[in-house]
């Protein structure tokens, strides 16, 4: 039996009833907000710069729904560091509640962040 490689999630959380729509699935906007958080966690980890704003989230296609109780992991990896920006790829995976081990790919996105200072001015990324 092949073992999956161990990945370090930027964030991981269980979806609760407050996150769902009338159909019992988690709102796409909730997932988008966590993609943004996971991407910013990675940008800070990678660059040690502590202040970023989101400028773009490239195409997000939902492949599977997320349900109440699912354990959702957001894996983030820096794919580009520019002069003032960082691009982070975020993959979202759900482990189905009650079906131990069943994992599905929910979506992924490339998120672009720009480094700013305390005055909200664009600055160079510290490396």
How would you sum up the global shape? elongated
Structural class: alpha+beta
The side-by-side strand order for the widest beta sheet comes to 1-3-4-5-2
Parts with pLDDT < 50 across at least 5 consecutive residues: none
Average per-residue pLDDT, rounded, comes to: 92
Number of helices: 1
Q: Distance between the terminal alpha carbons, to the nearest Å?
A: 40 Å
Number of strands: 5
Along the chain, the helix and strand elements come as EHEEEE
> What does the radius of gyration come to?
16 Å
How much of the sequence lies in strands comes to 35-45%
Describe the structure in your own words.
The protein has about 130 residues and is α+β, with helices and mostly antiparallel strands. The protein has one helix at about 30-45; strands at about 10-15, 50-55, 70-80, 85-95, 105-115. The mean pLDDT is about 90. The protein contains 1 helix and 5 strands. Strands 1-3-4-5-2 form a 5-stranded antiparallel beta sheet, covered by helices on one side.
Overview features:
127 residues, alpha+beta, five-stranded antiparallel sheet, 5 strands, 16% helix, elongated
How are the SSEs placed, and which strands pair?
Blueprint: E1 11-14, H1 28-47, E2 52-57, E3 71-81, E4 85-95, E5 103-115
Antiparallel strand pairs: 1-3, 2-5, 3-4, 4-5
